[in-house]
Design a protein that fits this description.
Number of strands of chain B: 0
Number of strands of chain A: 12
Largest sheet of chain B: none
Structural class of chain B: mainly alpha
Oligomer: heterodimer
Low-confidence stretches of chain B: none
Largest interface: A-B, 27 and 27 residues
Strand content of chain B: under 5%
Distance between the termini of chain A: 90 Å
Largest sheet of chain A: 8 strands, mixed
Strand order of the largest sheet of chain A: 8-7-9-6-4-5-3-10
Chain lengths: 437, 235
């Protein structure tokens, strides 16, 4: 994982291919290695013979030159749960980006970053939609869920969605009363840290502050092994890439934060191909999702003010968080690579996500982002996956050697044929001698 | 150097034929067209064999890995048609015994070489990858040449009316061996799991053994009979 950022930053003239290691690749490597190493240690005759008969490999790929793809659409999905009671309800937005990033797009499965975020978002959608079906538990908050694309490319999906909703439409839930925006990013690894990343510390008596307090309450009373803290990082517009997804909302003056198990946005875990399904600990993911769900519920139903005990368990029994559901959603998400260059608007991933969200949320809509023509924010290339064939070849000298041997053999057969008569007479004399006796 | 490899294999396969043709002085007898006719007979016989096999031997789903001895044995029995074909060729050519044998064998072997070895060599040996099996195919065709010469000689001997009684058995045995040679080779490979070069060596040895015995029988038949005739009628 240390080489990967360096590789990403290096410019090469030749394409670099990545493949999963298996026995055949290892044997090719061994053979080429031994062929090149032995030249320094043996005698001249051996070296000569070796160069003449060594096994070389020629690798041939079948694809064409890589070209830029024009008109690539990044898709995002939104859905919502409407709160109970009239207009002007406060809105909570829950966001997670679904794409993954790595040095080789077809090998980047992004299990933890950000498959865990999407799985957590979908589980939250399921739980809160269940709560909202009953009038008694139907709260007075709108909850919007946004699964964004292009997240690893500086949150393109979120950026355009915000522009469309705030600048180009007349009425949108985002324009009115937004309580806070909660972004989910990397929640499923094997550690016990949980951090709330903010761009400015929440002021007292705001919903953000209430949420922060509830998170602290829930973790300290029920999950003492979790080390929870707030991380304050100002938005730095001079840098190339924004740190966390909440900064996009912060730029548009919407109160936002990101929950993550990582302390720093620079952690290379967020952009590596080594982020595979086996690295995710489902129990920890389940626990983190539960913490978030409980804290959200306490804010929405105003439980602390109403005097509910600190260790009240809201999501139990029928409302239990389903670990199997989380596990299978994550399995499905990591079954295919989800790099932004690979998920176009017709992809099965998007349609399945849309279908899934439609089960629990209302007004599920797609949102497309295309790069600007004159000053594109992103540019994708194709030919990212190739089939490479390795042929075992012998050097040219070997063929000449073989030709010499064959010429010698043919000369021998010619001689035999010429003198076949002698052989014939010899056999005749032997058999007839035997007959006469 | 892929064309060079193709050239190597072709030279290895075809040159013995040329050498045999030149050496046996068939060119003196203008035997070229006779050889071509023998080749045409080969094609016809192969076609009949294929039709017969396709009609009467259904492809049953034998389990992979288990060598179907009985099935392959039956299929090899159909190769008896080869003998009939050789006999046909030889009976149509008037001339001395060894002339007939050589014409039939040369035509037969050339046709077999062109039909069954040309395409694998052209397609395979021209590729980038080097594999020893193409050299082995060419060697195999050399061995087949010797094999067909021996087979033609045996058929000729078998069909002579003045063949002494005690010759019939060895000739018949050798004929049977040569027909079922392919079957026996395949069985041996499956039972003993030998490598490809070893199999080639064994094949060469078997063919060598068969041809040597054929040569012995032929010489004793041709020259022994003549000697007998001259002894009886001559001095």
């Amino acid at each position: 994982m240390e080489i990967e950022p360096e590789l990403l930053a290096t410019e090469t003239i030749v394409p670099v291919y990545f493949a999963l290691e298996d026995d055949e690749l290892l044997s090719i490597h061994e053979q080429t290695h031994s062929a090149s190493v032995s030249q320094g240690t043996s005698s001249a005759a051996e070296v000569l013979l070796h160069t003449a008969t060594a096994n070389g490999f020629q690798m041939v790929t079948s694809g064409a030159q890589s070209k830029a793809i024009s008109d690539w659409s990044i898709t995002s999905l939104e859905g919502k749960l409407t709160g109970l009671g009239g207009e002007d309800l406060p809105t909570i937005v829950i966001v997670a980006h679904y794409d993954s990033f790595g040095v080789a797009p077809w090998l980047s499965y992004g299990a933890d970053s950000n498959g865990s975020g999407v799985a957590a978002l979908l589980e939250l959608a399921r739980l809160f939609s269940k709560l909202y079906t009953y009038k008694r538990t139907h709260a007075g908050y709108n909850i919007m869920f946004f699964v964004s694309g292009g997240g690893k490319f500086n949150y393109q999906g979120t950026k355009r969605w915000l522009e469309d909703n705030l600048d180009h439409t007349d009425s949108s839930l985002l324009q009115d009363n937004v309580a806070f925006v909660l972004c989910l990013d990397t929640l499923g690894g094997n550690d016990d840290g949980l951090y709330l990343h903010v761009s400015k510390p929440p002021k007292e008596a705001t919903p953000q502050h209430a949420f922060l307090k509830e998170l602290e309450t829930v973790t300290s009373s029920r999950f003492p092994e979790v080390k929870f803290s707030m991380v304050h990082k100002k938005i730095n517009l001079a840098e190339d890439m924004l740190a966390w997804e909440h900064e996009r909302f912060g730029i548009r003056r919407l109160p936002a934060f990101t929950v993550s198990r990582l302390e720093s946005h620079r952690n290379s875990l967020r952009t590596t191909i080594m982020d595979m399904r086996s690295q995710v600990d489902i129990q920890k993911l389940c626990r983190n999702t539960k913490i978030i769900a409980e804290a959200l519920a306490r804010v929405i139903y105003n439980l602390t003010e109403k005097g509910a005990p600190e260790d009240l368990q809201i999501f139990t029994e029928q409302m239990q968080l389903q670990e199997d559901q989380l596990s299978s959603v994550l399995d499905w998400l990591t079954a295919q690579p989800r790099a932004a260059q690979l998920v176009d608007k017709d992809s099965i991933l998007i349609s399945t996500l849309e279908y899934y969200m439609n089960r629990y949320l209302k007004d599920v809509k797609r949102h497309y982002v295309k790069a600007d023509k004159r000053d594109p924010e992103f540019l994708f290339y194709d030919q990212l996956k190739q089939t490479m064939n390795a042929y075992r070849v012998k050097p040219a000298i070997f063929d000449l050697l073989l030709a010499l041997c064959i010429a010698a053999y043919l000369g021998l057969t010619y001689l035999i044929a010429q003198n076949f008569g002698l052989f014939y007479n010899l056999v005749r004399r032997i058999t007839l001698k035997q007959k006469q006796h | 150097m892929t064309l060079l490899q193709l050239g190597n294999c072709v030279a290895l396969a075809y040159s013995p034929l040329l050498i045999a043709y030149r050496r046996s002085s068939l060119s003196e007898y203008n035997a070229f067209w006779r050889c071509v006719q023998a080749g045409a007979t080969y094609l016809f016989v192969q076609l009949c064999k294929m039709l017969f096999l396709a009609t009467f031997f259904p492809t049953w789903d034998a389990s992979v890995g288990v060598y179907d001895f009985v099935g392959e044995f039956m299929k090899s029995t159909v190769d008896l048609a080869d003998l009939v074909g050789l006999h046909l060729v030889m009976s149509r050519n008037a001339g001395k015994g060894d002339y007939k044998i050589m014409v039939a064998a040369m035509g037969w072997a050339t046709a077999e070489l062109v039909m069954s070895r040309c395409i694998p060599l052209w397609v395979g040996a021209r590729g980038i990858e080097f594999d020893w099996k193409y050299i082995q195919i060419s060697f195999d065709s050399n061995i087949s040449l010797i094999h067909y010469i021996a087979m033609a000689a045996l058929v000729w001997m078998f069909s002579r009316y003045d063949l002494p009684k005690h010759y019939r058995l060895p000739v018949a045995a050798l004929l049977g061996l040569s027909v079922y040679k392919a079957f026996l080779m395949e069985s041996a490979i499956n039972i003993f799991a030998v490598g490809s070069w070893t199999a080639l060596l064994v094949k060469a040895l078997v063919t060598g053994g068969v041809s040597l015995s054929t040569l012995l029988l032929y010489i004793s038949l041709v020259h022994g009979t003549l000697l007998y005739i001259s002894l009886v009628h001559g001095n």
